[in-house]
Every structure is written in C-alpha cells, then in structure tokens.
# Entry
Amino acid sequence: MSALQGTPLPDASPPAVSRVDRATAAAPPRRAPRGTVVATTLLIALLLVPFTPLVLASVSQGYFFPQVIPETFSARAWRLVLDPAGGAWTALGATVRIALTVTALSLVIAIPAGRTLGTRTFRGKRAVELVLLAPVLVPTIAVAIGIHVVFIRLGLAGGTLGVVLVHLVPALPYVVLLSAGVFANAALGLEEQARSLGASPWRRFVHVTVPLVGPGLAVAGLFGFLVSWGQYALTLVIGGGQVVTLPILLFSTASGGDVAVTAATALFHGAPAVLLLVVTSRVLGGSGLTTFGGVR
Amino acid sequence: MTAIPALRSRLRDERVRTWLSLAPALTVVAVLFGGAVVLAGLRSIGLLSPVAGDLATGPSLEAYRSLAGDPELQRAALLTLHVAATSTVLSVVLGVAAALTVHRLVRGRRLAITLLQLNLPIPHVIGAVAILALLGQSGLFARVGARTGLLDAPADFPALVFDPWAIGIIAQYVWKEVPFIAIVALAILAARGDRLDDAARTLGATGWQRLRHVTLPLLLPGVLSAAIIVFAFSFGTFEVPLLLGSSFPAVLPVLAYRRYTDLDLAARPEAMALSVLMTVIVVALVLLGAWLARRAVRADRADRAGRGDPGGRGGRGARTDQDGDRPDRTEVAP
# Structure
C-alpha cells in the first residue's frame, strides 16, 4: 500500500494508465468487461467438459470411435445400474452408512476440540493444529498399509467398522479445523449475555449456541461426509474387497471395460455428492464462499 | 464425598478443560494415524512382522537397502515429485487467474461461483474416469479430432494418458484443484479485496500496480496454504495414477501398493519402507514449503514497509509494519 504513495494521479501521467483504467478510475464499473464474461464462461465450460463424455457414453450402445454423439442411444447402462437387485444400490447403501457414521463420529470428536482451537489461546496450540493436520498431508495408502496388519489381528479388516475407523483419519482433520473456524467467527459472547439474563443452560444451547454455530458445523460435517464418500485407498486395503462402496464399485467397473456402465456408475456416484453440496449451500443460505473457502 | 467437589474444581481449571476437549481428537489421530506410521516403521526394519503372522526377522535395514538399489524407486520418486509439483504450480496459477476473473464479474458472480464449486465434491475416481473418457486415445477430444479430419485413427491422437509424462494424471489434479484454489482466493477477495483495490485506485494505481502490490500480496498467505494441501494431495493420491498412469514407472503410492499386494511376502517390508519414505518426503517438503511461504510473506511485507518508510530499512520495516495484516487502515477518507 505505502509503496503506491509516490505514484502520480492518473491525469498527471497518462502513459502509465491504460484506457480501461482511466475510464474506471473514478468508480468501479457497473458491468464487467466483456473479456471477463467470456473468460469466465470458458473456464466453467472447461470445468464441466469432462462430464460430457460420461453423459454421452452412459446413454449409448456401442459407443465406438469416432462417434461423438452416440449413433445408437440406449438405456441399457442406466437400467443395469439402477436395477434394484444390482450392485450399485447395495454399494450406495454401504457408502451412505459408512459416510454418515464417519460424519457423526467426527462431529462428536471435533466439536469440543474445534471450540477450544477456535476460541482459546494456549501453549502448544500451534503444535496441536499441526498434529491434527498431519493426516491430511500423508498419503492415505501409507496409512492403510501401516495399519492393515493390526486390523487383521483385531478382526477389523474386511468389515464396515474397520473402514469407518480408517475413514476417520482423513475426515477428522477437516471437521476439526472447519469447526475451529466456525467457533472463531461466531459471536459466542451472546452465550454469556444469555446467562446473565438468566437463561438456563438448555435454553442457552437451543436458542443461542445452535443458531450461532449450527449451520457452520453442518458444513463441517458435510466435508467429513464427502471425504468418506470419495475414499478409495483406505477402503480398498482395509475393506479388502468385502466392503464395496461406490468408489470401489466404480473402480472395478472401470477396469471391466464396459464404457457405458462405467459412465453411468460414475454419474450415479457423483450426483449425490453434488446434490448434497448444492442443497446444503441453498438451505444454509449465503454464496457458499464463506463456508467452502479454506478447505475443499 | 469430597472427591466430587475436588473433581469439579479441577474441571473448572482452564488448562485441564482445554486439554480434555482436545483429548478425543488427539487420541484418534495418535492411535490411528500415528499408530499406522509407527507400525509401518517397525515393520520396515523387521522389528514387527510385516504380515499377519509371526514373521518378524529382527532388526535389519534390508528393505531400505534393497530399495536403494532399485532403479524403479528413483524413477517413481522423480515421477511423483514431477506430478505433484507440476499439478500444484498449474493449479495455483490457473486458480488465482480464475478467481481474479470471476471476482470482476458484476452480474452472475454468484452463479459463476456455484458452478465453479460443482466439481469440488466429485471423488477422484470419478475425475479419473472422466479424464480417461476425455483425453484417452479414443476419448472425446480424439473423436472430435477425427470428425474434423485432424486425425484418422485413435493412435494418431497424442498419448495423454498412460504416458511417461503423466499428463492425464496432472490434468485430473489440475481440473480438481483449480476450483479449490479459486474458491480460497475468492473468499479472501470477497472479505477484503474490494476496499483495498478501491483505495489503491483512488491513489492512482494502475491495474498492474494494484495486482502486483495489493491483490497478490493479499492472496499470498491463504493461497500458499492451499497450495501445500494441493501438493500433498497430488503427491499421495493413489487411485488417479492407478487408473491414468503408465505401469512403469509408477508413482510412489502405486509402487507401495504393488509391493504390499505382491504374492512374494518378501516384498512386504519394502512396502512398509516405501510408506515410511513417502511420509518422510511429504512431511519434509510440507515443512519446507510452509517455511518458504512464511519467508515469502514476511519478505513481501518487509519489502513494502521498507519502501513506504522514507528512511526505510527493510529489516526494521518487517517488524514495525503490520499493514499486511490489517489493510483497512490504509483506506482513504472520501
């Protein structure tokens, strides 16, 4: 900022200022320049384009090179994937059960820690934050390989409980650190005010604490859910083929070589995650920016 | 009878309550994560059996020695670093550019941000399947190329997946992480960007000056933290290179998994050693990255403070100037 102090005003030094800047120097523009709109459209198109071949392939029959639009459309792949007796629904059930359990456990463990990290300063806080962040950084396959033998001995390998426990490793850090952010930004002084006005602990909790931090914690929980939802390496090793979640099913389908079924399975696996994100940000209001910044 | 009041007063003690509240989270991380790392270490040096049976061989560095002499390991390590570094740099550059572009939108900014977030919750397996269907030699791009007469057969399309340069893997990470970086940057811009930018504009700063001296320094700390996470992710994700990578050389996580599932149980200690190696490399690089990031932020502040102070010496400026943290103070009165 202070580096700008010696800069002459636009009128004094025309060559240093582009035409656009001169035109907008006085007030921010009402309308974005056309280039910005074009660039944004292009960016979003590029982000969405990888979904295009999946959608096309999933409704095709014999989608061979060099067809771009399928020559024969067919509901075969979708019928297979959506077949009530098929594996996709079973995998969906397993994925939902595991992800919900991981979310609930993460929140119960993370909320007290998050409140402390968000509202207090104490010796060793930085170290605690680093320790809690470490599992996010280390490759999950290293964790899976390291813990697998013990889980076999304990009878946890090849079962849902074991998978839930290892999913906590990547999920919990996000939930703790997001909760800490929620508590840091909440006006928790209101709790004290309610207490001095004579509100009981229960009423303080229901009418003050929950409205203050509830939406933020819901987002923290959503992240725990999504981390578990997309987890592959840990489920593969610890589940040992016995626990078939959607990522495991998708990977084995992709290795099988049926392009249409793979595409339909991928969309079947991705759609709930996107839907959940959109619904959550709608219900909680806001652009999602404040909630989704900081952590993916 | 006196035990309960005593316990109560202990619980009222701030320090006890602090650590009690952290205990569950720290325990989970220590047992499940710390345990995994320590056990991999013990099994890699033969102090514990690397399989579910009693096959401990006693202390030995054999696994590390055999890895050190393995030409595949070097190739794998270089490839992994290449993938992680390239993905991180591309994601950061494109993500920041995307954020700056989207932030300039007036109408439709919220819609753009919503669309930008859509692939954040998409699992990596899906991303890998999608990239394969897009960039593979019979993927959508190759098909469009064939339709427009640019190529005749799938083999004419450049090998972008299963290729030695891991282009497909990098494309998948960049596709996933550009929105992540952009959302982080947009959050910072939304919180503090406009007022600062207006102030600089009022002071007559050109577009480039505002970008260089106002916006980028504002974004630096947050984006660098996000970049570290992106690096660690693209270093360690396993399913993406498994689906999109060539089989030789493979990246380190894939190599570790292959050794672990090798029918020859003698490869197990090597898998453990690879896990330890990956952990050490990531932790060392992340700490180095965090240290460099802190230095960059500090140097940037010192630089700006030094030039703002008429008798300025950068070193002192770093400590006296807090403007980098609280930029609103520089706002110009109307």
Observations:
- Chain B touches chain A through 127 residues (CB under 8 Å).
- The domain at 41-303 of chain B is CATH 1.10.3720.10 (MetI-like fold).
- Residues 268-308 of chain B form the longest helix (41 residues).
